[in-house]
Structures are given as structure tokens and as C-alpha cells.
Amino acid sequence: MKFQKHIFICTNQKEAGKACCGEQRGMELVQKFRDVLNEKGLKGTVRAQRAGCLDACKFGPALVVYPDGVFYAPVSPDDVERIVNEHIIGGKAVEELVLNW
């Protein structure tokens, strides 16, 4: 099955307590996205999955939506439904959460 969009959520963890997305709710965000996508009937067309480092450690937790190439950070579980509704369903990035580096 081909997915229309992929949401890659950083779950990377670094040694010695260095700041990293995985330490800041990485897996919690993965599960929240999966739950919301399932509730909205998007399972099978949009995939949320864990990813390694997205090179946005100091901004995290971070994620990227493909094929759009839109990075979001910092993202909290409270932001997930909005990202799904506005970006994934509505096609418009949530500008105040977009990572502009």
C-alpha cells in the first residue's frame, strides 16, 4: 500500500543526557499521532512512525511531514490533532509550529 503522507517523529536518544527529541516525548507523540489518525479514518493512507535524528535537537521535539517536507518543532501532544486537522486533512501547514531554521 502506498501512503499519501508520512509523518516522521524523532525518537532519537543521545548519551549522557544531551537534549534530544526522544527524551522529550518522542514515543508519546508517535502514539498520539497514530491514535488521532486512526480516529479520523486515515489509517492506511497516512503513516506516523518513529525516526532517527532529524538534526533539530535544540528545537525539539521535532517531526517532518513528507512528501511536503514541512518540519514542525517544538511539538507537544496537544498539537497533534491540530496538525492532523489543518495540515494532513486541510492541506495547510500550521505556521506557528513550522520550524524555520
Q: How would you describe this protein?
A:
This protein is α+β, with helices and mostly antiparallel strands and 101 residues long. It has one domain (5-97): Glutaredoxin (3-Layer(aba) Sandwich). Helices cover 24% and strands 19% of the residues. It has helices at residues 26-39, 80-89, and strands spanning 5-10, 46-51, 63-66, 70-72. It has a 4-stranded mixed beta sheet, covered by helices on one side. The longest helix has 14 residues, at 26-39. The N and C termini lie far apart (33 Å).
Summarize the structure.
It is built from 2 helices and 4 strands.
What fraction of the residues are assigned to beta strands by DSSP?
15-25%
Q: Which runs of at least 5 residues are low in confidence (pLDDT < 50)?
A: none
Q: What characterizes the major β-sheet?
A: 4 strands, mixed
Summarize model confidence as the mean pLDDT: 91
End-to-end separation in angstroms reads 33 Å
Gross morphology: globular
Number of helices: 2
Kindly state the percentage of residues in helix: 10-25%
Backbone structural class: alpha+beta
CATH fold-level assignment: Glutaredoxin
State the CATH architecture.
Answer: 3-Layer(aba) Sandwich
Question: What is the top-level CATH class?
Answer: Alpha Beta
Q: What radius of gyration results from the CA coordinates?
A: 13 Å
